[in-house]
């Protein structure tokens, strides 16, 4: 490590002079820079929705319900050749340490909903469901950083659970840049540093990019490439867990219903 | 700096999930389906090009099914996909000119034309303007109707008909929605269960239970109502356990619940549900 980098590191990160990377090279919560938080998820968490998923990434917890394809509520939104994808992103009042009144129409939620809608519109084979509508409802139960990442991953699971046809499986991962180090899957403490953060949603098999968002600037183009690389490898790792979950869930369903029955 | 490496998130080997079925390939959207030349792709598959190679990929999570050259992927859970000849139960959502629109648990509402219902008198006659004005006398918004899928139109819309004495408005019973893939296509969808309850198992996952068949008179006793409620809970138990729903499995759960002395209200408790469904679960091989 060149001395210049060391000096900047010793200056610390946030307002309180927080050190994001310890001398051992570990992060605040003890993870290595390339380490994703622990993931737990389950499919079919809600019985009334067509598809649903509960997803945990560290302390970030998200519940997603998918309804559809179904008849559109308003005649005005009907597209005669494809399905319309709608997304609603809301955060529970108790989701963050500060108990605050949240509204699903606020700026952040609308932005997150729009990102998800665009990402999934490209993946869902909307042309096979003409004149119908697919609704994705996201509820963030606990926000410890990376709520959008968790929401995208959970929505992918919920769409699979609903049996909606998609050209590929979307996985998201974010990368932070603190103390001159790329940290995969930043927690809320690392996100609060106001350092550059890249949120990437990739298609797991074709490796195409479904959505890419960069908050504040990275120093140069090369580091952007690096960040993309980190995010992609993080997403691949998350995909392995999600794929395993889908497989386990499907085998359980198959086991209880029986192979022959159809 | 080297390429980022990850080591911590490591799922356990998939073989532990359901050991007897672990050899079955489960697809996930985007995963490649192994194919031979001249395969014909069908529902649930997509031909995608990566670079210069063209591979067949799955679009849903499910099981690969092959019939000769035909390759398809059947999703384990999905919305109901109507097919001609299916017996369905629908709820009337609105009336448009000369037609009712019914919610049949599919991607779009189904259509029941005025010309596809039996008018009183049973004779084939022209549908007059007067009939059109009287449409609400047959079915109004919110009514449950049993019908058969007559045809699928070019725009993907589905038309129903009720041109049989079996089909028509449903009343005086209980409606239970379940997952549509649990109701198999069968010769018979109108059943009189061994306990005496009449059940209509709609292919679309809508099930109607009544203590007596339509147009059959007589008073309803509390015992009969409890019986219907027990059948309803049995159907719900099968739904939560994801076991195929038919007269045999319903009765198996019904009998098991009586044998175990389970109270009506306890039948939906998860632990009891699992217990009373054991018999029905073992029937899956024979199904």
TrEMBL record, chain A:
<dbReference type="Pfam" id="PF01138">
    <property type="entry name" value="RNase_PH"/>
</dbReference>
<dbReference type="InterPro" id="IPR027408">
    <property type="entry name" value="PNPase/RNase_PH_dom_sf"/>
</dbReference>
<dbReference type="GO" id="GO:0000177">
    <property type="term" value="C:cytoplasmic exosome (RNase complex)"/>
</dbReference>
<comment type="similarity">
    <text>Belongs to the RNase PH family.</text>
</comment>
<feature type="domain" description="Exoribonuclease phosphorolytic">
    <location>
        <begin position="168"/>
        <end position="233"/>
    </location>
</feature>
<dbReference type="GO" id="GO:0071051">
    <property type="term" value="P:poly(A)-dependent snoRNA 3'-end processing"/>
</dbReference>
<dbReference type="GO" id="GO:0003723">
    <property type="term" value="F:RNA binding"/>
</dbReference>
<dbReference type="GO" id="GO:0005730">
    <property type="term" value="C:nucleolus"/>
</dbReference>
<dbReference type="InterPro" id="IPR001247">
    <property type="entry name" value="ExoRNase_PH_dom1"/>
</dbReference>
<dbReference type="Pfam" id="PF03725">
    <property type="entry name" value="RNase_PH_C"/>
</dbReference>
<dbReference type="GO" id="GO:0016075">
    <property type="term" value="P:rRNA catabolic process"/>
</dbReference>
<dbReference type="InterPro" id="IPR020568">
    <property type="entry name" value="Ribosomal_Su5_D2-typ_SF"/>
</dbReference>
<keyword id="KW-0271">Exosome</keyword>
<protein>
    <submittedName>
        <fullName>Uncharacterized protein</fullName>
    </submittedName>
</protein>
<dbReference type="InterPro" id="IPR015847">
    <property type="entry name" value="ExoRNase_PH_dom2"/>
</dbReference>
<dbReference type="GO" id="GO:0000176">
    <property type="term" value="C:nuclear exosome (RNase complex)"/>
</dbReference>
<dbReference type="InterPro" id="IPR036345">
    <property type="entry name" value="ExoRNase_PH_dom2_sf"/>
</dbReference>
<dbReference type="GO" id="GO:0034475">
    <property type="term" value="P:U4 snRNA 3'-end processing"/>
</dbReference>
<keyword id="KW-0963">Cytoplasm</keyword>
<dbReference type="GO" id="GO:0071028">
    <property type="term" value="P:nuclear mRNA surveillance"/>
</dbReference>
<feature type="domain" description="Exoribonuclease phosphorolytic">
    <location>
        <begin position="35"/>
        <end position="164"/>
    </location>
</feature>
<dbReference type="InterPro" id="IPR050080">
    <property type="entry name" value="RNase_PH"/>
</dbReference>
Automatic annotation (TrEMBL), chain B:
<dbReference type="GO" id="GO:0000176">
    <property type="term" value="C:nuclear exosome (RNase complex)"/>
</dbReference>
<dbReference type="InterPro" id="IPR048565">
    <property type="entry name" value="S1_RRP4"/>
</dbReference>
<dbReference type="GO" id="GO:0000467">
    <property type="term" value="P:exonucleolytic trimming to generate mature 3'-end of 5.8S rRNA from tricistronic rRNA transcript (SSU-rRNA, 5.8S rRNA, LSU-rRNA)"/>
</dbReference>
<dbReference type="GO" id="GO:0000177">
    <property type="term" value="C:cytoplasmic exosome (RNase complex)"/>
</dbReference>
<dbReference type="GO" id="GO:0034475">
    <property type="term" value="P:U4 snRNA 3'-end processing"/>
</dbReference>
<dbReference type="InterPro" id="IPR012340">
    <property type="entry name" value="NA-bd_OB-fold"/>
</dbReference>
<dbReference type="GO" id="GO:0003723">
    <property type="term" value="F:RNA binding"/>
</dbReference>
<protein>
    <submittedName>
        <fullName>Uncharacterized protein</fullName>
    </submittedName>
</protein>
<comment type="similarity">
    <text>Belongs to the RRP4 family.</text>
</comment>
<dbReference type="InterPro" id="IPR036612">
    <property type="entry name" value="KH_dom_type_1_sf"/>
</dbReference>
<feature type="domain" description="K Homology">
    <location>
        <begin position="173"/>
        <end position="211"/>
    </location>
</feature>
<dbReference type="Pfam" id="PF21266">
    <property type="entry name" value="S1_RRP4"/>
</dbReference>
<dbReference type="GO" id="GO:0071051">
    <property type="term" value="P:poly(A)-dependent snoRNA 3'-end processing"/>
</dbReference>
<dbReference type="GO" id="GO:0071034">
    <property type="term" value="P:CUT catabolic process"/>
</dbReference>
<dbReference type="Pfam" id="PF15985">
    <property type="entry name" value="KH_6"/>
</dbReference>
<keyword id="KW-0271">Exosome</keyword>
<feature type="region of interest" description="Disordered">
    <location>
        <begin position="1"/>
        <end position="21"/>
    </location>
</feature>
<keyword id="KW-0539">Nucleus</keyword>
<dbReference type="GO" id="GO:0071035">
    <property type="term" value="P:nuclear polyadenylation-dependent rRNA catabolic process"/>
</dbReference>
<dbReference type="InterPro" id="IPR004088">
    <property type="entry name" value="KH_dom_type_1"/>
</dbReference>
<dbReference type="InterPro" id="IPR026699">
    <property type="entry name" value="Exosome_RNA_bind1/RRP40/RRP4"/>
</dbReference>
<feature type="domain" description="RRP4 S1">
    <location>
        <begin position="79"/>
        <end position="151"/>
    </location>
</feature>
């Amino acid at each position: 490590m060149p001395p210049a980098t060391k000096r900047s590191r010793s200056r610390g990160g946030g307002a309180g002079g927080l050190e994001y990377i310890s001398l051992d090279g570990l992060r605040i919560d003890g993870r290595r820079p390339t380490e994703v938080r622990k993931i737990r998820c389950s499919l079919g968490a809600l019985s009334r929705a067509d598809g649903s998923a509960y997803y945990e990434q560290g302390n970030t917890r998200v519940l997603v319900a998918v309804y559809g394809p179904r008849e559109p509520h308003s005649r005005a939104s009907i597209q005669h050749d494809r399905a319309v994808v709608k997304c609603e992103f809301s955060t529970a009042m108790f989701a963050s340490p500060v108990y605050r009144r949240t509204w699903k129409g606020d700026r952040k939620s609308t932005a997150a909903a729009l990102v998800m809608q665009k990402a999934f519109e490209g993946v869902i084979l909307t042309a096979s469901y003409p004149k119908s509508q697919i609704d994705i409802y996201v509820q963030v139960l606990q926000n410890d950083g990376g709520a959008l990442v968790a929401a995208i991953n959970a929505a992918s699971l919920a769409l699979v659970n609903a049996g909606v046809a998609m050209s590929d499986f979307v996985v998201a991962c974010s990368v932070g840049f603190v103390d001159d180090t790329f940290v995969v899957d930043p927690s809320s403490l690392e996100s609060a540093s106001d350092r550059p953060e890249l949120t990437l949603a990739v298609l797991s098999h074709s490796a195409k990019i479904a959505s890419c968002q960069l908050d504040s600037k990275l120093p140069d183009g090369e580091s952007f490439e690096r960040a993309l690389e980190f995010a992609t490898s993080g997403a691949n790792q998350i995909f392995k867990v999600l794929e395993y979950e889908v497989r386990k869930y499907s085998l359980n369903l198959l086991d209880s219903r029986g192979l022959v029955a159809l | 700096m080297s390429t980022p490496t990850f080591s911590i998130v490591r799922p356990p080997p998939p073989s532990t999930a359901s050991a007897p079925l672990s050899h079955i390939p489960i697809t996930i959207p985007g995963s490649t389906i192994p194919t031979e030349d001249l395969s014909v792709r069908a529902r649930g598959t997509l031909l995608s090009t990566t670079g210069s190679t063209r591979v067949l990929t799955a679009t849903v999570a499910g099981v690969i099914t092959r019939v000769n050259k035909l390759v398809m992927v059947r999703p384990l859970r999905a919305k109901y996909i109507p097919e001609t000849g299916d017996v369905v139960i629908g709820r009337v959502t609105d009336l448009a000119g000369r037609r009712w629109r019914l919610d049949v648990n599919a991607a779009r509402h189904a259509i029941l034309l005025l010309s596809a219902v039996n008018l009183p008198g049973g004779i084939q006659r022209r549908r007059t303007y007067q009939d059109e004005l009287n449409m609400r006398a047959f079915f109004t918004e919110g009514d449950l109707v049993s019908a058969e899928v007559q045809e699928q139109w070019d725009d993907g819309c589905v038309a129903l008909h009720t041109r049989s004495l079996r089909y028509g408005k449903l009343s005086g019973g209980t409606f239970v929605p379940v997952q549509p893939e649990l109701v198999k296509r069968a010769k018979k969808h109108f059943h009189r269960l061994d306990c005496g309850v009449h059940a209509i198992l709609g292919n679309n996952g809508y099930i109607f239970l009544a203590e007596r068949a339509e147009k059959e008179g007589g008073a309803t006793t509390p015992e009969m109502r409890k019986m219907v409620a027990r059948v309803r809970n049995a159907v719900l138990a099968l739904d939560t356990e994801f076991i195929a729903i038919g007269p045999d499995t319903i009765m198996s759960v019904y009998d098991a619940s009586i044998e175990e002395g389970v109270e009506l209200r306890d039948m939906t408790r998860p632990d009891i549900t699992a217990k009373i469904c054991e018999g029905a679960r073992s029937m899956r091989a024979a199904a």
